[in-house]
């Protein structure tokens, strides 16, 4: 397998409300403090402390994002390095990847492993993802289309993903997971409104992240697999592909033994449509 062509932006980071809330609760209770006591020591209001801690349970309302000053004040109250508390407040943002499969010799599962560089992530596969030669990989099959329909219904897909992840909650809670949606192309080829599926990609990262959080997990990778032949078969394939490229924050193109990523992959895909 050729090494992927590197053309990616560096990792993005987001505020991890649930992890931060758990950290606050843990450090506060270890010291035997009430929320009122922590608020007093940090010179912030008690309702604000309560709001920050509210995010600790999956499915709960997300609390506010603390300012730099707030984190510094909390760290001073706990008598710890502010850098450590900052570290507890962020995590790498999940990546929404478009994988265009063009007669690749590798399965989607193998490409996910190679492209992500993640050796310990637990993968969940919707549709056929194939096998992997990476012995440390594990994957859990899920299905978003148990009820076949000629009409693509985004609301039903949201519910289905949430249900599938909840069903596997015991295995994925507390973990970073990768999700591979390998059935996308086959569904697109069999519904009467394929453009609705492509348009839904713009909302898909939020749908995936929410469903993962409700199951107590973090979606570190969200890979949508499309066969280039299925996209070519659309009435306005060029427009459809451009929409797909705009809707993802990482682009991969798999052909033969190679995997190209980033801007080079986007150029190759557009030239192949």
Can you give keywords for this protein?
alpha/beta; 434 Repressor (Amino-terminal Domain); Rossmann fold; 7-stranded mixed beta sheet; two-stranded antiparallel ribbon; 14 helices
The description of the largest β-sheet is:
7 strands, mixed
Mean pLDDT: 88
CATH class of the largest domain: Alpha Beta
Order of helices and strands: EHHHHHEEHEEHHEHHHEHHEEH
Q: What is the helix content?
A: 40-55%
Helix count, DSSP H or I runs of 4 or more residues = 14
How many whole angstroms does the radius of gyration measure? Answer: 21 Å
- What would the principal axes of the Cα set say about the shape? elongated
Number of strands: 9
Question: Would you write up a description of this structure?
Answer:
The protein is built from 14 helices and nine strands. Helix content is about 45%, strand content about 20%. A seven-stranded mixed beta sheet has the order 5-4-6-7-3-8-9, with helices on both faces. It is α/β, with parallel strands linked by helices and about 270 residues long. It has helices at about 15-30, 35-40, 45-55, 70-80, 80-90, 110-115, 155-165, 170, 185-190, 195-200, 205-215, 230, 235-245, 265-270; strands at about 15, 90, 95-105, 120-125, 140, 175-180, 220-225, 250-255, 260.
